[in-house]
Amino acid sequence: MYNYPVKLTHDAETNSWIASCRDLPLMNSVGDSIEEALLESVYGLVTAVAIEIEERRPVPQGSAPQAGEYIVSLPVLAAMKAALHNAMIETGTRKADLARKLGKTGTQIDRLLDVEHSSKVETVELALHQLNRSIAVSVTAS
């Protein structure tokens, strides 16, 4: 769901790998090797998703990879927060509405939507449940 195709381009001048994502154009990262660039891409994706949420734009789903692209997944908690943000947009739920439903303050809801804040998974799951969304987790071999 929040698995994104990432393109790596080698920069001969700096001998580094530059990562970009067509689904999240604001995502940029770099690494000295392919492995490092892909690892750094996770942080780049989190930052790009944070910007989308801050700008109150829907967080796009990852598209199918094209030839030569790598799939990089958003961390589980960040994906849950992106899903919560998208559900709020889809249902027309304002932060104040969600705060009332959960018995929380506006500041607590802001943190719940902050992909860089370490919220409790259970709290995000409860918020999603309040918006008639459920969570399914799958683990696959890489």
From TrEMBL:
Pfam families assigned to the protein according to its UniProt record, in alphabetical order: HicB-like_2
InterPro entries: HicB-like, TTHA1013/TTHA0281-like
Location of the HicB-like antitoxin of toxin-antitoxin system domain: 4-82
Name of this protein: HicB-like antitoxin of toxin-antitoxin system domain-containing protein
